[in-house]
Amino acid sequence: MTSRAEVAVLIDHTLLKPEATPASVEALVTEAKDLGVLAICVSPSMLPIADTAELLIATVVGFPSGQVKPEIKAAEAAQAVADGADEVDMVINIGQAIAGDFDAVEADIRGVVEASGTALVKVIIESAALNDEQIVEACRRAEAAGAGFVKTSTGFHPAGGASAHAVSLMRETVGDRLGVKASGGIRTVEAAEEMIAAGASRLGLSGSAGILGGLSD
């Protein structure tokens, strides 16, 4: 079994519910510090956030549909970084990927990477909505565009969230050159460990406390 400390440093402690309030974000930050996780992930409207200490701050762009014009995604990323985001989790245009227009997908990603400056960009491919060939090509294009991570899911798509199969395929595609973030529907210790074993180097969790509580140091 993976230790509590080993899992904690992989976690983006996440609050992306539309009904989130400033008070709930403040509570998220407090809990994240108590848990010793790596980062928090919040909606861009919640930035800037004060008193985050050693926590990394991640936010989302083009979320959750990805159906946003590229120049708007880029502008959203630039604003998020100006507001203090260390990391930007962007959603690809999933329809373009399904249609096979991966040149457009790559250009969309590149625009966000360039707008984000030194901030780390994670590319959400919504893996449950894609077939294996589309997952592989989306990951290749994310790497070509200069992203630092590929990420499975928003957690909002009806097709589902992360799967060990998708994580394994994504890791096989990007090797050790990019990170792989598993996110969406990871609610148990067993699921978290399965994603790590499949190759995830980051976990997006809203129920971090429950999962970490099931592990020992």
Number of beta-strand segments: 8
What value does the Rg take, in angstroms? Answer: 16 Å
Which CATH architecture would you pick?
Answer: Alpha-Beta Barrel
Largest sheet: 8 strands, parallel, barrel
CATH topology: TIM Barrel
Distance between the termini: 10 Å
Instruction: Write down the overall geometry.
Output: globular
CATH top level is Alpha Beta
Low-confidence stretches at least 5 residues in length (pLDDT < 50)? none
Give a description of the structure.
The protein has 217 residues and is α/β, with parallel strands linked by helices. The protein has a single domain, classed as Alpha-Beta Barrel (TIM Barrel), CATH 3.20.20.70. The chain contains 9 helices and 8 strands. The protein has an 8-stranded parallel beta barrel with strand order 1-2-3-4-5-6-7-8, surrounded by 6 helices. Strand 5, helix 6 and strand 6 form a beta-alpha-beta unit. Helix 5 packs parallel to helix 6, helix 6 crosses helix 7 and helix 7 packs parallel to helix 8. The longest helix is centred in the middle third of the chain and has 15 residues. The mean pLDDT is 97.
